[in-house]
């Protein structure tokens, strides 16, 4: 699969549940194309379906492994993959340590993943395959009580949970503050966990994000409107060698995860 097609499929799937992404492009790009810094996908850690299962397709498309990250309080591990072409988005893949959930939540997750054939993970299309299992609203709520990540992933499945504007490659803005102000003035709600700007020039990365849109999800027994996907904004700073830092920052990422929290 070509990288163009890969990201186009991810983008179309993301737009279908994130109408604000199109408005953000018009607002910030004014019609000019936007370069994305990265996208992120979420997964359950099983031998067939964690970070490695997704990563092998990126390696086959010319990506290289970047950093590894750990989020002990959320029971998550993650890694990022990057491409030598700086206009090709990096990919941040996380996996939930299912074994550290309660026995009840583990049962639910196993009932979901048990509906999926291994074959799904053998093709790069898995990245935008959506939700390959049936889910009841009561199981969604049971997961939500323990892990917002588990609930979101159970409801939305495999897709980009956000795209990220590369502010370094965005004309007309020289700070993340300026981007945030524009978004707020246009009525977007930003993730304010730990402050609207996560990170700093010292850690070589500043990030902000909108709170996710809401879409109606069809559960096996009912329909409910729940948080879908969000848009992130990243400004990278140069390392001492002059190259832009290409990694992620655990303390900041930990807060970006909250962009799919329910506001109410
Ligand atoms: C990923 C959150 C981390 C970043 O840029 O630090 C992240 C997620 O919400 O799945 O995207
Ligand atoms: Ni991100």
UniProtKB/TrEMBL annotation:
Coiled coil residues, start to end: none
Keyword Nucleotidyltransferase among record annotations: no
Protein name per Swiss-Prot or TrEMBL: 2-oxoadipate dioxygenase/decarboxylase
Keyword Oxidoreductase in record: yes
Matching InterPro entries: HGLS
Sequence similarity: Belongs to the 2-oxoadipate dioxygenase/decarboxylase family.
One Pfam family per UniProt: HGLS
E.C. code: 1.13.11.93
Keywords: Dioxygenase, Iron, Oxidoreductase
Domain of life: Bacteria
Cofactor(s) required, per the database record: Fe(2+)
Enzymatic class: oxidoreductase
